[in-house]
Design brief:
heterodimer; A: mainly beta; elongated; B: 27% strand
Chain lengths: 105, 147
């Protein structure tokens, strides 16, 4: 899975039936410091994620097909989670849209 | 899944038998802003009406085949939707905006809470000293209050 940030949405009328009623998000990969790195791509939303959210994205067909419970669905990338925090040796980082724990607690 | 724009059609007379009758399109992979990412790819069209100029969703890997009516065609990239619109924000700008607002707000909030705490604490100490003095209890800082 990749750490990504949601930066938008797309709309398509003519599409494969598996995409009916599903949200296809524009995501851009982010590094461990949660800064954008790389070119944006698309992923089907399974987490009610929105623009600004930092998310887990699987780019693997079998994973995505399990999410739609259809072994023959032409679907590849899926938003699998919304990130609350990332811990690295450099410290704990919080996505910009996540409310940080208060300093006094 | 990725965005791309169809930039042409590809015709091949001699080809793998499984590719007979499959529409092949030349697609330039793009990001959400329409900037090219990588070289053009040849893709199968799994929905039918896509043609040059169309902006499309496309997928790579095994799934490209699953978009076709025959599920065992040896292809590695395919079109799965024709895009009507893309609504996206600039990644760096949006993060800067969100981060600066949040950081400023949270720092202000913490600072003001600390300030209130300190004021309350000093008020409490002053009040305690006053009460102690009124009760005639000797406290270190208030000997002159008794005289």
């Amino acid at each position: 899975m990749k750490l990504c940030r949601v930066i938008g949405t797309t709309v398509a009328t003519v599409k494969q039936p598996v995409y009916d009623g599903r949200k296809v998000l524009v995501v851009i990969p982010v590094d461990a410091a949660l800064e954008p790195s790389g070119a944006s791509f698309l992923a089907v939303d399974f987490m009610q994620a929105g623009t600004g959210d930092t998310v887990l994205v699987a780019q693997e067909g079998n994973t995505a097909r399990q999410m739609v419970d259809d072994p023959l669905a032409p679907i590849h990338a899926a938003v699998m989670g919304i990130v609350d925090q990332v811990e690295t040796p450099a410290g704990v980082r919080y996505p910009p849209t996540v409310r940080q724990p208060s300093a006094s607690s | 899944m990725h965005l791309g724009t169809v930039i042409g059609r590809v015709v091949a007379t001699r080809k793998v038998e499984a590719l007979e009758g499959v529409k092949l399109l030349l697609v330039l992979p793009e990001d959400d802003r329409g900037r090219a990412k990588g070289e053009p790819l040849i893709m199968t069209d799994g929905i039918g009406p896509a043609g040059p100029g169309d902006r499309v969703w496309w997928i790579e890997g095994r799934e490209a085949t699953l978009a076709l009516s025959e599920p065992y065609v040896p292809v590695d990239a395919g079109i799965v939707g024709i895009v009507d619109s893309v609504d996206s924000v600039d990644a760096a700008a949006s993060i800067d905006a969100v981060a600066s607002v949040d950081a400023t707000a949270s720092v202000d909030a913490v600072a003001s809470v600390d300030a209130v705490d300190r004021v309350a604490a000093s008020d409490n100490r002053a009040a305690a000293a006053t009460v102690a003095a009124a009760n005639g209890v000797a406290t270190a800082p208030a000997p002159e209050a008794r005289s």
